[in-house]
Amino acid sequence: MTMKKFFLILLLSAGLTTAVPAAESYTNAYDAIALFTTVLEEVHRSFVDSDEAGYDQLIHHALTGMLQDLDPYSQFLDETSYKDLRDDTSGHFSGVGLVISVKDRMLTVVSPMEDSPAFREGIISGDVIIEINGEETRSMTLSDAVKKMRGESGTEVKLKIVRPSTHKTQEYAITREEIKVASVKGAKILENGIGYLRITQFNEPTAENVKGQLKQLLDENMKALVLDLRGNPGGLLTSAAGVAELFLPRGDLIVFTKGRTKEMGQQQFKSSGDTHYTDFPMAILVDDGSASASEIVSGALQDQKRAILIGEKTFGKGCVQSILPLGDGSAVKLTTAKYYTPSERVIDGHGIEPDIQVEMDPEVLYKIRIQQSLHDAPPGGLPESGSKLQDVQLEKAVGVLQGVLIFQDLVSQDKK
């Protein structure tokens, strides 16, 4: 129900026959605010439970409803939620370790954070959360869902989840922990000079960590690189730009935004800095758990012909949320623009299509990640002799890069 229809129903039920019909659009802010004030005063005066009808509560409820009707990402953040949002960017908080979004009107897991309680329980990208502590999620905002899953370490939260691929429903009782995210993992030479590096999310130190790992791999005579962004739910735009520019020449466009106003929505991010690794071939692994900042990096390097994308279509979250702090410690998170790749592809709602489509069972990838975490398995899950866990996407990337290296050698020999 839209806010306008909600207001009209309240007015009619209160016997206010002067209500403006729902079809009429207001031509100025004064008329709309006058209607809002009328409803506010009537609810404050007449609602049966006076404890629920204080001005502060009603205004917060109205703001929450107004913003959640705009899109899945715009939210009113009370003081606690605003603090939680700031904690996210530092790379540690207390909870179960799930990055969630709304997809097809359902509360969907973008990706579990590795080494988190939710990851160890077996929750995977694409799972749909239908209940939190016995409460249905259909009418929950993202902010409410996150708040319910967060909490003190050692406390428990119950989730009911449907897995679309199998249509099975499962309940989990998960104990919250302090979540500490290591954003760069698994740097190693796999075979024949092909390096591997995985980014689990984009937070403040990610670009510097990637830079350090690349230097180490190059010292080990790396000739090509597989960058694994599968299951990476995103993070900071500045971090994504910082990673992308490591692989692009100075001045290349990484991403730009378009919004209604120049001040709030129109920006360009170009490669800058002093360190640029542009002389080795790259493949990037993506899947439907790759979102937001991951899509910015993969889209930029694909458009600039710097990397081959291998895997599955990405999640499709590419909108800019501006945080507008308010005087009482709360804030508004408002979608003010959308991200576009250098070739002007819109990310939001569309995702990034890989150059080479390779499907993979997400449960197999999850088991490979568990194997890596518990047994220090080879990065990316390259299968050992007799192993049933086969990372077909990584195998494809290695094969493609081997072919590129062979071609480069042949071209080099012809020039001699």
Question: Would you give an account of this structure?
Answer:
- There is one protein chain.
- With 416 residues, this protein is of the alpha+beta class.
- The protein has three domains: 3-53, no CATH class; 79-88 and 92-180, Pdz3 Domain; 184-321 and 335-410, 2-enoyl-CoA Hydratase, Chain A, domain 1 (Alpha-Beta Complex), CATH 3.90.226.
- The protein is 34% helix and 25% strand.
- It has twelve helices and 19 strands.
- Strands 10-11-12-15-16-19 form a six-stranded mixed beta sheet, with helices on both faces.
- Strand 11, helix 7 and strand 12 form a beta-alpha-beta unit.
- Helix 7 (206-219) runs parallel beside helix 8.
- The longest helix is centred in the C-terminal third of the chain and has 24 residues, at 392-415.
- The chain is globular and about 90 Å long.
- The chain starts with a helix and ends with a helix.
- The model is unreliable at 1-23 and 376-386 (pLDDT under 50).
Please give the radius of gyration in angstroms: 24 Å
Which term fits the overall shape? globular
List the domain count as a whole number: 3
Low-confidence stretches: 1-23, 376-386
Tell me the name of the CATH class of the largest domain. Alpha Beta
Binned, the helix content reads: 25-40%
Structural class: alpha+beta
Instruction: Report the average pLDDT across residues.
Output: 85
Distance between the termini: 72 Å
Please outline the major beta sheet: 6 strands, mixed
